Amino acid sequence: MTSPEPPLGDWVVADLSTGIAGAYCTKLLADGGAQVVKAEAPEGDPLRRWSASGAPIQPGRDGALFSFLACSKESVVAEPDLVRELLESADVAVWSPGSPLDPREIHRTYPHLVVTSITPFGLDGPWRDRPATEFTLQAWSGGIIGLGRGDPERAPVCVGGQAGDWTSGAYAAAATLASRMRGGGELVDLSMLEAHIMTFTYHPVTFWEMLGRPWQQARRLNMPGVAAAKDGLVALGCATAQQFFDLCAMVGHPEWIDEENPFSIVARATEVAPVIQEWIAARTTAEIRELATAFRIPNSPVVNGASAASMDHFDARGTFLRNPRDGFLQPGPPYRLHPDVLRPPGPAPRLGEHTPKRRTARRAAEPGLSFGGLRVLDMTAFWAGPSCTHALAMLGAEVIHLEATARPDGTRLIAGVPPSVEQWWERSPIFAGLNTDKKSLTLDVRTERGREVLRRLIETCDVVVENYTPRVLDQLGLDYEAIRAVRPDAIVVRMPGFGLDGPWRDNAAFAFVIEDASGLTWLTGHPDQNPVEPYSIGDPNAGLHALVGLLLALQHRRRTGEGMLVEAAMVDAALNVAAEQVIEHSAYGALLERAGNRGPSAAPQNLYRTADTDEFGGNDSWVAIAVATDEQWQALCEALGRPDWTTDPDLATAAGRRAHHDTIDAHLSAWCAERTADTVVDGLWAAGVPVGKVLQPHRQAELEQLRFRGFFEEVDHPVSGRARYSTLPVRLSRGPERHHVRPAPLLGEHNRELLAGLGLSEREIAALESDGIIGRAPAR
């Protein structure tokens, strides 16, 4: 029996990139079956010599991360004639700085290509040539300080593990797939800063402009968060008032419950945190997790590179695979397609291994897919699911967001708008930011009549996306096989936290739990304290990878006419972004550890307090500085005026600077403390040093680079008024020029339109409304 053809089996991708973002983008395309040809300089991609732990790479060998990211690819040495031949025969070219070619020139010379450019700030605009690193981009995004992460008595902390590079690569893959499926011949201009904003912040500009206050002002440690049990670290989290009330009951303090004021849970949890931590310290992680699971309180062990592969759930699901060339453990793909049409990972190429190979002639392009002809049933809530479907809506798909008056989307309820405010459920900036261009249908699917209407709706939909826990759809009788019986070519995207099988299958999953279970939490925080949850990346990263899986399924259907089940477990997406931890431990026996704001790829790298008073009247103004090369170090010394301490010959190399990092930090801290953040940034950027202001996230729209690129668009909401909304982190040369065509829908706004389109009469619609099966306001 022959294996099914992968979705991208006839795509040719010219990989002209270096670094994690480009490598991960092309890995996702290679997993989908594309022939990815990596054009390298004679000395090879720098990733071949990279190890985050500093493990030595023997001559003629490759670093383990490269071997993971280059699975199934080919390698050629980039001689000019060969590159021209490759670009002529390719369908896609992925580019990042470091290549001698220019992406705009590639697009002009080879107009059939999708040319995907991955740069820190985008190809145009006043910041286009400014130096940056993943760390300084986190600062500019507002993601370092924006969700109040970290001990308020210390510097805020970045998310560890270069997560922004990985998600930039995933965004590049999604944009490349969408562009090529629309017909190709396009320049895709990805801004890593904008990708960081979508990854590390939660619509803060919209929040600020709609409600007149920031999403988070004071920094704090999330409570209960990560705590020390008898035998290790365990994480408990409360995303809703009910979960906090259940936690109170679990630890034996029901008197803490205040049902009259559910918005007080954050303050109350912080107040009682020492008592909760004492309760945790008296028990083992297994005891705590068993109790928390019984109370349906989100929980997880705090997983790291050493422990991930031995976790019972990952073992049961076969989450980790052996690298086909070098034998270390690596995560499997971030989604599972049923039927399995992904390409099994093949060995990474040696440098220039395929140089003599001739390229095949380019085939005729497929007709483009109109996303405007795509109908999507969006049975999702909160952040992860809606962010997946939102991208399709902004590309023109008809997306129908399904809610129930008894259970509206949870993001309608988390803005802190009290029920005494008129139409309070329509005033959530988070819901508004995630759901523009969608339609709203309310339907109580707990009733047989509601399920009957839902089945009629599914008949009309190309795609169904849901992010309930697995048992919910099963109990409704609407699993994949049931949907397939109604619509045989349907693409069904299921987004459970931990997958459709395995011992953690039915565990509650929120962003922070996914971060705990994947290693993202482990690498975030100061080394002398417990790690802290990023509290940001778990959801949008899951939605992004679900989108990539969905686009692969659409491509499969275009070629075969067949539907598909896409199992996009949130934790699988997170494990891919955190892949380096398991890879380094398996390949080298090295456990990567959190390092505060220091990092493996730059020295010095840290946050430094400035002389500014922050906008809230505090002393919490910081700049991020990251020196990634010896040339940047010399530029920093010049910008500082070459003080005597910089002349130490030990500091001329990265290893020496790393060894003397404390001393460098002391000098840079003193220098920055006497200057404003703007003065530091202007001086160091002019010298060519990567630097960033640690931005309050609601100030994103003030950045001139984002204004130039039109990253924010103004939208007029019928209840909450005008505000600016983030878009997509790419500019597509064939448009659309504007992403937000209409505001997020009011609850049940399109009930009549959609139900009449299914053939229901006005009398039948009125009966559904009188019976409470549909409605326009939350049920009391």
TrEMBL record:
Pfam families in alphabetical order: CoA_transf_3 (PF02515)
GO molecular function: transferase activity
SUPFAM superfamilies: CoA-transferase family III (CaiB/BaiF)
Keywords assigned by UniProt, alphabetized: Transferase
PANTHER family in the cross-refs: SUCCINATE--HYDROXYMETHYLGLUTARATE COA-TRANSFERASE (PTHR48207:SF3)
Name of the featured protein: CoA transferase
Protein's organism: Streptomyces cylindrosporus
